[in-house]
Amino acid sequence: MTFKLMIPNTEGELQQELMDDEARILAGGTDLMVQMRSGKVAPTRVVSIKKLERLKEISDLGERIRIGAAVTYSELQRSHILQEKSPILLKAIRQIGSLQIRNRGTAVGNIANASPAGDAVLAMVLSEARVEIMGPKGERHESIESFIIGPGRTTLSTGEYIRAVVIEKTDDWQSLFIKVGQRNAMCISVASIGVLRKGKEVRLAFGSVAPVVVRAHKAERFFTREGIDGTKLGEFVERCVESISPIDDVRASSWYRRQVVRGELMKIFGHPDVGGTDVT
Amino acid sequence: MTPLAEEKIREFNVVKKNTDKVDGKALVSGKPVYTDDFDARDELQVKLVRSPHAHATIKSIDASEALKIPGVVAVLTSDDLPRVCFTRAGQGYPEPSPYDTFVLDRRVRYVGEPVAIVAAETEKAATAAVKAVKVEYELLKAVLSMDDAMKPSAPTIHPEEEASGIFDAERNIAAHFEMEIGETEKILKDCDVTISRTYHANTQLHAMLEPHVSRSYLDPNNRLVIVSSTQVPFHARRILSRIFNIPISSIRVIKPRIGGGFGGKQALHTEQYVAAVTLATRRPARLIFTREEVSMATNIRHEMQYEVKIGASKDGKIRAISMDGVSNTGAYGEHALTTLMVSGSKTLPLYNKVEAVRFSGNVVYTNLPPAGAFRGYGAPQGLFALDCIVDELATELGLDPLTVKEMNSIREGESSPIFKLMGEGREGVEQIVRSCKLQECIDRGKELIGWEKRSKGMLPDSRRAKGYGCAIAMQGSGIAKIDMGAATIKMNEDGSFNLLIGATDIGTGSDTALAQIAAEVLHVTVDKIIVYSSDTDFTPFDTGAYASSTTYVSGNAVKAAAEKVRMQILQGASEILEEPLPNLELTLAEVHSKETGKTISYSDICTQLFYTFNQRQIGATGSFVGEESPIPFMATFAEVEVDMETGQIDLKKLVSVADCGTPINPVQALGQLEGGTMQGIGWALFENVMYSQTGRMLTTDFFTYKVPTRMDYGELICELAESYEPTGPYGAKSIAEIGIDSPIPAIANALYDATGIRLREAPFKSEKLLFEILSREV
Fold first, then answer.
1. Are residues A102 and A41 part of one domain?
2. Statement: residue B3 has pLDDT above 50
3. Of B660, B664, B637, residue with least CA distance to B738
4. How far is A250 from chain B (nearest CA, A)?
5. Of these four, A15, B246, B447, B668, which has the most CB atoms within 10 Å of its CB?
6. Are residues A164 and A249 in the same domain?
7. Which structural domain range is residue A237 located in?
8. In this structure, are A38 and A89 located in the same domain?
9. Chain B residues lying within 8 Å of A253, measured CB to CB
């Protein structure tokens, strides 16, 4: 494992460094270092963004919040604006790795890594996040759902980098994040489920059960149109399950992943006493 | 006759107190203490070329390209090494394990088996050379399960002529054992209720933090020195002497601090390779395993399956038990026979009131990683089967499982014929249970879990089911008449003592506990005892850190040595003070005359004896071998909640109360109990070894092999019952292993209580449980 470590002082220098196909950005390194060690990636150039102060900003844009690429999970957890305006993102972050991982890892890194198990990605998908990308041709913006195209794959091209992510404030939605793993700490989920609900409107996303984190758009529309009373509940849950396509791996079988999603949705929406109000 | 327990419980000066670990500060402050922390000049870095195939013969090895890589010094293959058959198992001699292993063989028997040794100036060159060595294999059919091992169509895994001690090599049976007391089948037929069930405990990884590592060099007199992360330095010296045909006098093995073993270092995994390099090149050498190597190519736990039959009368009295097992020893037979025997001998005596009992089993070879010693050593696999079938029997009889366990289990002053019939690899010894606080453990455990007030069934959310389970367990303290430990103590003129022990502290805290025993006898504070352990040149013999032996066996040796030294101190004082011996007694670091009131400090006594008066060295060696193996007992209670929609298991609370006699250092004893319990919880719920279809272990890192963290289970309460073992040093018996025995059955019983589903294969995966829940609903 040999590589050059570059630490640019400006975004201009950063762009220069990234013009190399074999360059990889190092933010927290919680994914990159693991992948390099296991030999999955072997960049010749590792570009740290730690000196780029502007990428460490969290800003309030009114309806939305902008999170810079170098902001760590721990910084997000300490941010008042996040605490007040994005309970779903904080709930997801609480489930990520360990304290040490959260002190290093970044939300934007979670997007760049494009894992279907990304907990922060799931919360950002629910928050209709838009990814702010800089590149040789200037700035562009893309929704997080279209930006992530497969496991570990995004629309980022050579020379481009994510400068920030902009999420919707969702404090007026009820939120719920559930992660089912083999154990509680330092764990990659077997399945994860995020829900936002505001009256008849609902947003649903699933992690670890498809090549990417998926939104259940069809099921969401069904919920708004038909509701979930009586027999509608079963139909709603099946529409949710239709949106996922889990695989077998060392963590669980696809059969179990479907069952977990089904079971958790019944718990969230189906309890006779709770009637879906469990979503707080 | 030796008195029973209560008579000797008393107050101590040093023992039964929470002394700081003697090595604690160095460990936590990152001082260079471990094998890999030291460097030798011109040291070669060693790496092993490993087989990608589960079963193959080696047609040829071409190292020419590897040797061209700059910095590569040597590539050794089986042709360069003595063809000596041995066992890597670190056990008393002669070992009860088959001799079925070569340092390097012309046949490979599991994925990851070493094929060639590479030595280079740098780790980088060694790694590159490993990839450049070309090995041509001829593939053989592989045996990848216990079921397949004994089939007539199965290939023979150990056809080599040189092997010895294999029970039936042709049928892949490494070891076999059977015993019967009474007419089991006849009584089983005669019982009011007889049930038969099969239980299967899968393997487990030791997952110790420090990987296997050793270093070797020649001292100025050309003696071979090995520094190793080992639990068995004296066995390592003996085995290396045999392999390389060099006298024991020309080998020195040093054990520095160890970052955990759990049985995984009770075998030679690295020493033979560095020794081969040093002997071939005359240069120092170092080999440290990667985590992947530790997982797939050292030792794992014996997977075992037991078919159990149990019969009882209607009132719950157990009349007969029969256990028939099969154990998977993988590619080599390390600890094969003894782990099988322990799974019977350290479980069945719990139910000593039976009219008949039978135990039998085969240990089979497969082309999977070799199994070896692992905390519990077969007992947890046996107890899973035995405790659960007693639980199932109680359900069948409509009785409370705990009541059935209480009414049938062993108590103080009782015995079992099994003690004599089943030892480790041979006959055991007759013994009565001199200390047994099992009932006290049960009573206290019931209180802590809230057994009487427990409510089971669905929780108010009508989704989660709650349940409780219990299990009782036993273990041993050393192997009677086999495990021997020795200690030497010498006095210094400031009143301090060097305590030299063969005993091997692998992170357990035994150096501290043994220092406490010496300090107690010698009437000094622990800081006056300077401990040096496990160096074959400087410390007396000890079998090593295994079989829950150190506190009991080595502790008694330390006590014996200290008592001799104590006499010598009194003698010296008597000469100096001109007072008869009976007048004198030890007070803190002083000798005091009860008659004249005269007092002399240890420092004064030793200074005079060194320099001016009746000059001599105060010092003595003591040794000990157990005539019996006193049994620690334990009761474990588990409270679980099961999510009936997902099968998720939430271990809300687990209570283990153990009787280990006098805890020499209570906080360390509790640490052992908690650690063992946690490792048992991991095995029960999280740790799942998986293989590919070609027999390659897939779960070789901590991403895929999930050891539980503290966040993965609820409240854990461990306590020690008040007890005193008359044959132990200051009343102590063992605590190192017993904690791991009971979590699996206790959790299995609790899961049944919660869901009505009986899981008979561990670990208990949520996925499996959900499948059972859904199958039942259909």
1. yes
2. no
3. B660
4. 7
5. B668
6. no
7. 174-270
8. yes
9. 767
Residues of A in Cβ contact (< 8 Å) with B770: 256, 259, 263
**Residue contacts between A and B (CB atoms, under 8 Å):** 48
As given in the structure block, the two tokens for residue B409 are: 């289990």
Report residue A271's pLDDT band, with 50, 70 and 90 as the boundaries: low
Residue contact A256–B690, C-beta within 8 A: no
**Comparing A244-258, B95-109, B183-197, which segment has the lowest mean pLDDT?**
A244-258
Averaged confidence pLDDT in chain B: 96
Q: Say yes or no to pLDDT of B710 above 90.
A: no
Q: Of A168, A192, A226, which residue sits at a domain end?
A: A168
| A72–chain B nearest CA distance, Å | 22
Contact between B646 and A271 using a beta-carbon 8 Å cutoff: no
A140 and A257 both lie in a single domain = no
Say whether A250 and B690 touch across the interface (CB within 8 A): yes
Look up the CATH number of the domain holding residue A225.
Answer: 3.30.390.50
With CA atoms as reference, the chain B residue closest to A190 would be B767
Q: Does A42 touch chain B (CB under 8 A)?
A: no
Q: Please indicate, yes or no, whether residues A152 and A17 belong to a single structural domain of this protein.
A: yes
Nearest CB to B712 within list A184, A259, A271: A184
Q: Which residues neighbour A138 within 8 Å (Cβ) at sequence distance 6 or greater?
A: none
Q: Is the ipTM of this complex over 0.85?
A: no
In whole angstroms, give the CA distance from residue B763 to residue B689. 10
**Span B279-292, average pLDDT:** 98
Which DSSP string do the residues of B465-522 spell out, in sequence order? EEEEEEEEEE--SS-TTT-EEEEEEEE-TTS-EEEEE----SSS-HHHHHHHHHHHHH
Mapped onto helix, strand or coil, the DSSP state of residue A80 is helix
pLDDT of B620 reads: 98
Per the CB < 8 Å rule, is B648 touching A180?
yes
Q: Judge if A8 and A120 occupy the same domain.
A: yes
How confident is the model at residue A275, as a pLDDT? 40
pLDDT bracket for residue A279 (50, 70, 90)? very low
> From the list B699, B704, B767, which residue is nearest A256 (CB)?
B767
Nearest CA in chain B to A181: B648
Looking at the fold, whether A118 and A39 belong to one and the same domain comes out as yes
* pLDDT per position as a tens digit, A22-58: 999 999 999 999 999 888 999 999 999 999 999 999 9
Are A253 and B767 inside 8 Å of each other by CB?
yes
Question: Are residues A194 and A123 part of one domain?
Answer: no
Q: CB distance A184–B767 less than 8 Å?
A: no
Q: How far away is chain A from the Cα of B645, in angstroms, using its nearest Cα?
A: 5
Task: For residue A250, list chain B residues with Cβ-Cβ distance below 8 A.
Answer: 690, 698-699, 704
Tell me, yes or no, if A266 comes closer than 8 A to chain B by beta carbon. Answer: yes
Domain-embedded: residue A234: yes
- Whether the per-residue pLDDT at B456 is higher than 90: the answer is no
Q: What share of chain A is helix, strand, coil (3-state, %, to 5)?
A: 35, 25, 40
How confident is the model at residue B597, as a pLDDT? 95
In percent, the amount of chain B with pLDDT more than 90 equals 94
Residue B1 has pLDDT above 60, yes or no: no
Domain end among A135, A150, A168: A168
Number of H helices, E strands in chain B: 19, 28
Here the CATH number for the domain that contains residue A160 is 3.30.465.10
Q: Which of B677, B664, B672 is CA-nearest to residue B445?
A: B677
Q: Within a domain: residue A280?
A: no
Q: Within 13 Å and on the Cβ side, how many CA atoms surround A125?
A: 32
Q: Does the pLDDT of residue A187 top 80, yes or no? A: no
d(CA B325, CA B342): 12
Q: Which helix (H) or strand (E) holds B555?
A: helix B555-577
Whether A18 is in a domain gets the answer yes
| Burial classification of residue B440, based on how many CB atoms lie within 10 Å of its CB (0-12 exposed, 13-18 middle, 19 or more buried) | middle
